[in-house]
Amino acid sequence: xxxxxxxxxxxxxxxxxxxxxxxxxxxxxxxxxxxxxxxxxxxxxxxxxxxxxxxxxxxxxxxxxxxxxxxxxxxxxxxxxxxxxxxxxxxxxxxxxxxxxxxxxxxxxxxxxxxxxxxxxxxxxxxxxxxxxxxxxxxxxxxxxxxxxxxxxxxxxxxxxxxxxxxxxxxxxxxxxxxxxxxxxxxxxxxxxxxxxxxxxxxxxxxxxxxxxxxxxxxxxxxxxxxxxxxxxxxxxxxxxxxxxxxxxxxxxxxxxxxxxxxxxxxxxxxxxxxxxxxxxxxxxxxxxxxxxxxxxx
Length: 298
Ligand SMILES: [Zn+2]
What we know:
- About 40% of the residues lie in helices and about 20% in strands.
- α4 links the parallel β5 (about 110-115) and β6 (about 130-135).
- It has helices at about 1-10, 50-80, 100-105, 120-125, 160-170, 190-200, 205-210, 225-230, 250-255, 265-275, 275-280; strands spanning about 20, 25, 35, 90-95, 110-115, 130-135, 145-150, 170-185, 220, 235-245, 285-295.
- It has one domain (about 40-80, about 85-295): 3-Layer(aba) Sandwich (Rossmann fold).
- The chain contains eleven helices and eleven strands.
- By secondary structure, the protein is of the alpha/beta class.
- The strands form two sheets. Strands 6-5-4-7-8-11-10 form a seven-stranded mixed β-sheet, sandwiched between helices.
- It binds zinc ion.
- The site of zinc ion has 9 residues, from loops.
- Keywords: Methyltransferase, Transferase.
- It holds the Pfam family Methyltransf_23.
- InterPro entries: SAM-dependent_MTases_sf.
- This is Methyltransferase domain-containing protein.
- GO terms for molecular function: methyltransferase activity.
């Protein structure tokens, strides 16, 4: 009984969801959580994926800059990485992909990554990074605990976000934190895409949700909805900050590798979007990083 009412209601606050901007899209009028009824197929790929390489390469400048900002912020928030000689905090990167975040975090943390895609995991391990193939938390040993658990563009792809966060709480050491770096529904691009979808142009909205890709977005959060979901898992939001959405560098590749775009159209889109980049920097960003900690036990 509980299960079926939970399934029809909002995963965060339990309110009734309302139809969204597409047949597959739902939103909660109470906490703001947005969900998509997509099926993820990330583990069904076999062999190297050229598009995946191109996609990652295109996103690298954005990700690298945001990782630096995120790590500096994380260290300031948690006081980690300051003490000389002190034992370094243990950090888990869930869905670590090519290990770019692990490489940067290794200066201040004892890092460890898990990655479900076998080919990506193999290549990252081959570069000497401490990575294990598999899903969170199944890839972990029963007694493995962490001071920091990081989801970089990962949490919004996981089908049951509440249980993923419950597992996080179980896997945290005392005073540990969860870092959620994810798209934000309050972002300017997302709002523009939503307006376009309402006007009968669903393309950008579909793309932001990564509709049709092997691992589409299943959630779009903001602080209220993430706090609602986290609350069900015994966690609370303790801090958040926005990260820059978009850099000009890599934009063309990013559009090209979304699959169904012709070269000419990608070029036209790039030329159309480039002049907007400075304006977009002034608008609400589409990426937020949230810090979650255990709720005080009463
Ligand atoms: Zn809700």
